[in-house]
Specification:
- With 111 residues, the chain is α/β, with parallel strands linked by helices.
- The chain has one domain: Roll (2,3-Dihydroxybiphenyl 1,2-Dioxygenase, domain 1), CATH 3.10.180.10.
- It is 21% helix and 35% strand.
- It contains two helices and eight strands, in the order E-H-E-E-E-E-H-E-E-E.
- A four-stranded mixed sheet has the order 1-4-3-2, covered by helices on one side. Strands 5-8-7-6 form a four-stranded mixed sheet, covered by helices on one side.
- The radius of gyration is 14 Å and the shape is globular.
- This is VOC family protein.
- It holds the Pfam family Glyoxalase_6.
């Protein structure tokens, strides 16, 4: 028996802002339903933004655990910082740690 990764599911109180953020950052296409937004990007598993009423963002570092995070690689750290911020992300530290609009932390590392 083998397994393959079908999707990464992200909870968000506002699926539109969360899926728009990841779409601006990574490209691909977004398909929307009443409760889920499906972001499809070549070479990635599907990222599913799931509507979660009452979603409480992780408080990381120093609070509620981060639950899950994504690492992205880039060959241009300064350009990546600008792109993340322009897409609606928040810088959590100078060490390449950011948060999406729903508060999910992710890291950008040199490729």
């Amino acid at each position: 028996m083998t397994f393959s990764l079908l999707s990464l599911v992200v909870d968000a109180g506002d699926p539109e802002s969360e899926s728009s953020f990841w779409h601006r950052l990574l490209g691909g296409t977004v398909t929307r339903t009443a409760t889920h937004h499906f972001l499809r990007i070549d070479g990635f598993p599907v990222i599913v933004i799931q509507h979660a009423p009452g979603h409480v963002p992780p408080q990381w570092p120093g609070g509620v655990s981060q639950q899950l995070h994504v690492d992205l690689a880039t060959d241009d750290m300064a350009g990546a910082d600008e792109r993340v911020l322009a897409a609606g992300g928040t810088r959590l530290s100078q060490a390449g740690v950011y948060a999406s609009p729903a508060g999910h932390p992710f890291c950008v590392r040199p490729a």
